[in-house]
Amino acid sequence: MNVKKEDGECDSDGIEWNNDNNLQYSWKDRLKAWKKLVSSPSTASVIAGAISGSSSRAIAMPFDVVKIRLQLQLESYTSGKYIGAGHCAKTIVKEEGICSLWKGHMSSQLLSIAYGGVQFPTFEFAMRHLKKRVGEDNETFNSFVAGSGGALVATCVTFPLDTIRTRMVAQGEPKIYRGFFHALGTMVKQEGPLSLYRGLSTTLIGVMPYIGMSFSTYITTKHFLSSLSTTATAFSKHESSNWNKAIAGATAGFVSKCIVHPFDVVKKREQVVGFHKARQSFGQVVKPYGGTVGAFVKITRSEGIRGVFKGLLPSLAKAVPSSMVVFLVYDDVRNFLLHEEL
Fold this sequence. Notes:
globular
């Protein structure tokens, strides 16, 4: 007997019917279509990159706030408002509340999701072409070049988000910007659209080798650790333990951050030029440096070599776990979707 199905009702085979008992679609077919979509290397890379970026940002945000405040302090630790990373964190919580350690979190999350969603697919696209042209044996070189290319594209795409995030983290009380979109509108109206890209050249000089070294260090370290394992599974180049991924990610974050931190200091200084009102309570205001080289010269001359390494400790405290989470989550999500790792 043919029993009439209700509109939208599914039978035991997952087939959906309308009021006229006509076949509409099967949820099993939709599930297969979804699996086919996410099993595409490009789509899987975007998904894994976005998830890994969001995960690391939630963990690293308080370290980032402390790091930025220290980087923007022109005075030395002995005469400035903040005398160190711990003191900076305590002062922020005391004066602005504990939630201020996640100040600018919305723009930071948008930045991390977008950055990861662009960087990793670009990296994998570049790696595929480099393996064909240069060869698969030059993995360290290939991953460095591909990582640098991924950083170039992702940074150019997401840089306005980074500038707005820096402004929101840098402001004290009373706040100049009420939120992300208010900051965006205010900056474009008062300083022009190009203000969103202030410090881009310095950022690219620092971030391209930073990300390139991160990828090459991660992949090289992960494969080295896997080769030391006595188990056949971990020995495989395409399947590493989570411990190996975590150690390799942490190592990548430490090595690369120590090398490029001075460029990050200069970038942050350039991004708050013209932002005097919200910075008056923190001490001296940042004046135009006249370019990247001029910034390095003026900072080292007035603050010493330690000036370009301000905020290194909280920066490392952020970079090491952040890098570990980014690579671990990305590799695991990618492995879940494609059944293969970086």
